[in-house]
Amino acid sequence: MDRYLSNEGHLLEDRRRKPEGTHLSEVVKVRFTEEEIEDLQASAAMQTGGRLAPYLHDLFMEAHEERKRRHARMLAELAEGEPLSDESREVATQMLLKMAEVGLMRSIGQRQTA
Hints:
This protein has 114 residues and is mainly α. The chain has helices at residues 34-48, 53-79, 86-113.
């Protein structure tokens, strides 16, 4: 991480990172270079003896629980007739995008097999 620090110890501008605090209001997709991924894997292998599956499982389960919580909140707001919060609106948008993507892929698959 030293390569991102200037001579004064301040972080240099890194276009891969969003402004400070963005993670509180938006979904942040983390992108790594191949070198960074290799560094992370090597570090993880030293810390876990190469057994990442339990950690990945826990991480996926936490993400799944969070997604379920957000969906439940959105459905509760809809059921109570309340206006959707920004978070619920984002959840609904993501659900509609996923449904459209699945429908499009299914349609393309049917055309290719016809």
